[in-house]
Write a structure and sequence with these properties.
With 172 residues, the chain is of the alpha+beta class. Helix content is 37%, strand content 22%. It catalyses: Cleavage of peptide bonds with very broad specificity.
């Protein structure tokens, strides 16, 4: 399972650590891993009491449970499952690229290039977006990282640059 985050860095790191601890405790108690959906439900339940506070957390859980799963959970406890998510202040720019070019027949290389382009546009146009990302390709066999994705973004074309992700935490 991978977790990406958007929001206050301190809040996101705190809740990622709490979530990792709870996932590990579940695995120790029950002898098997918690599913992505159950993890999202657990996180949503833990965040809900803080609804209306100053806490700013938006986590996207990514993984494979009988098929690909992508679930967004935010600090008010909202939980959404979908095929594509872009979260944060730069997301309208990323969605502009994704809406224009996303198709489900993309090869792995084309998908990574599209993700890199979407992130480049978001970080180039939005002053509050990050500038470094690790792109992961998740399949039933596990995940792999795109090693060409970990570069600082500049004004050069996105095909030669990296893409963004605030934090990526592995819970293996």
């Amino acid at each position: 399972m991978m977790v990406t985050s958007s929001g206050s860095g301190a809040d996101c790191m705190l809740w990622e650590r709490i979530l990792i601890r709870e996932i590990r405790l579940y695995q120790l108690r029950h002898g098997h891993r918690l599913s992505i959906r159950a993890t999202a439900k657990l996180l949503s339940s833990m965040l809900h009491p803080f609804k209306g506070t100053e806490m700013c957390v938006a986590l996207t859980l990514c993984g494979w449970d009988n098929g690909p799963k992508l679930i967004y959970v935010c600090s008010d406890g909202a939980r959404l499952q979908g095929d594509v998510f872009s979260v944060g202040s730069g997301s309208p720019y990323a969605y502009g690229v994704l809406d224009r070019e996303l198709r489900w027949s993309l090869s792995k290389g084309e998908a990574i290039s599209l993700a890199r382009e979407a992130v480049f546009r978001a970080t180039h146009r939005d002053a509050y977006s990050g500038n470094n990302v690790d792109l992961f390709h998740i399949t039933a066999q596990g995940w792999s990282i795109s090693f060409t994705s970990c570069f600082f973004l500049t004004n050069t074309p996105p095909q030669t640059q990296g893409a963004l992700c605030d934090f990526v935490t592995m819970t293996e």
